[in-house]
Specification:
Blueprint lengths: L1 E5 L3 H13 L2 E5 L3 H8 L10 H10 L3 E4 L2 H7 L2 E4 L15 H13 L4 E5 L7 H12 L5 E5 L9 H6 L4 E4 L3 H10 L10 E4 L1 H32 L3 H9 L20 H14 L5 H24 L8 E5 L14 H11 L3 E5 L4 H4 L7 E2 L3 H5 L4 E4 L11 H7 L4 E4 L6 H6 L3 E3 L5
Parallel strand pairs: 1-2, 1-4, 2-3, 4-5, 5-6, 7-8, 9-10, 9-12, 10-11, 12-13, 13-14
Length: 434
């Protein structure tokens, strides 16, 4: 099938490349000429394991193309995916839908023949209705159907998530659109993907509900970690114990510095605003958002406490800046709150991240960025593990200690065993452990 993917950011790029890898003919469209030029040269603007090889292979096979010419791509397409950004709007946290609506107007002018227009972006309930209205108003003669097909891609594992999905949610009441979307995902039939057809509004809500529920699990285990510290329990034992219950499951029960990234914070806020607008407030999700904000701010206090109650004039090293491993995404990363609080307290901050430093530099102008973990530890009076990158799991602790001005290790991801850290002479603190 011929597919146009409007938007070549994270979701659009991963989705477009994977569709091309299925054998579809995919044109990825973006208004940013610099981004398109880089992609045509094989330069990937995001870090996602395996994505560069897939782009190269599908460009070579001519199944994948990159262009700024939306009209030409849409005119040839049977399916047009809208995968543009929906950032949180300033002031109220609601999703900014201006990019979606602008893309819908552009698509309306270009479609030829029956075309399925699919919102791939995460959008609030009712957005599909407005996209449908915009296209119908701009092109009363157009034959089209609007579907919702939310993405469920984890950064760092997006390709496997796309190709081996838990479910593929499609929101449509149009029989022809259902047939087209079944054909789009037909290459996955060997894996028997659960293609789940629902009405459009339910599909839009499923994405927000799923992310908000997972965010709730993260906030819950973080608060349990605080309780464990007070009562002398081990949160990792508690997490395993409750995760063995199949009704709960073990995933997203890993204590840490709070959730960040492009999905959980934004989607939880948007869901809260949608619920308020419809007079059905979601008090649990509101509490999750507030608890996570407190969590991120509290992490810097742990570092200050480990340094004797003051970091003024002291050098603090941070290992990891991205909101999670295997991504360079800095959006709402806990490290941002930690750096800001430490600098406000008078600390000098050194930092190292394997992939995220390019993204971090513009938002952390006064941080000293280092070449590796050992450079980051040099002269530091405390070293904090902020992101759980694999390369931090087996550091030479003897060497790390010899480079530091004081042996304070604050492990916000519970990467090390307390006994091992103390054996190497560190004053060690972690999350939710005695």
């Amino acid at each position: 099938m011929k597919i146009a993917m409007i938007g070549s950011g994270y979701v659009g790029l991963v989705s477009g490349v994977c569709f091309a890898d299925f054998g579809h003919q995919v044109a990825c469209v973006d208004k940013d000429e610099g981004r398109i030029g880089a992609l045509l040269r094989g330069e990937i603007p995001i870090f996602e394991p395996g994505l560069d090889a897939l782009v190269e292979a599908n460009l070579r096979s001519r199944r994948l193309s990159f262009t700024t010419d939306l009209a030409a791509a849409v005119a040839e397409a049977e399916v047009v995916f809208l995968a543009v950004g929906t950032p949180s709007r300033r002031g109220d946290g609601f999703a900014d839908l201006s990019y979606i609506y602008a893309a819908a107007r552009d698509v309306a002018r270009a479609i030829k023949g029956f075309t399925v227009v699919v919102t791939k972006s995460t959008v609030p309930v009712g957005t599909g209705d407005e996209v449908e209205r915009i296209i119908a108003e701009a092109r009363p003669d157009a034959e089209f159907a609007v579907c919702s097909n939310p993405e469920f891609l984890r950064e760092g594992a997006a390709i496997s998530d796309f190709k081996l999905p838990d479910r593929i949610v499609v929101g449509t009441g149009d029989a022809r659109a259902r047939e087209v979307m079944s054909e789009v995902y037909r290459p996955l039939n060997l894996n028997q993907p659960p293609l789940y057809f629902v009405d459009r509004r339910s599909a839009e809500l499923i994405k927000y509900a799923a992310n908000s529920f997972l965010a709730t699990k993260v906030a819950f285990i973080n608060e349990m970690a605080d309780l464990c510290e007070k009562v002398g329990a081990d949160v990792q034992d508690v997490a395993r114990g409750i995760g063995m219950d199949k009704r709960i499951g073990p995933k997203f029960l890993h204590p840490g510095p709070g959730f960040g990234g492009s999905c959980f914070p934004k989607d939880a806020l948007a869901l809260v605003k949608t619920a308020q607008d419809h007079d059905a407030p979601l008090h649990i999700v509101e509490a999750v958002v507030a608890a996570n904000d407190r969590r991120k701010r509290a992490m810097a206090k742990r570092i200050v406490a480990a340094c004797g109650g003051s970091v003024r004039g002291k050098t603090i090293g941070l290992l990891g800046l991205a909101f999670k491993l295997n991504t360079d995404d800095m959006r709402d990363a806990p490290s941002i709150s930690i750096v800001t609080a430490l600098q406000d307290a008078g600390a000098k901050v050194r930092a190292y991240d394997p992939k995220a430093m390019t993204q971090a530099r513009p938002i952390m102008p006064d941080v000293t960025f280092c070449d590796d973990p050992y450079d980051c530890a040099t002269g530091a009076e405390a070293l904090a593990m902020v992101t759980e990158w694999d390369e931090f799991r087996a550091l030479d602790l003897t060497r790390i200690k010899s480079l530091m001005a004081a042996p304070n290790l604050i492990d916000l991801r519970n990467i090390y065993r307390p006994a091992d850290a103390r054996k190497h002479g560190f004053s060690y603190s972690s999350i939710g452990r005695p």
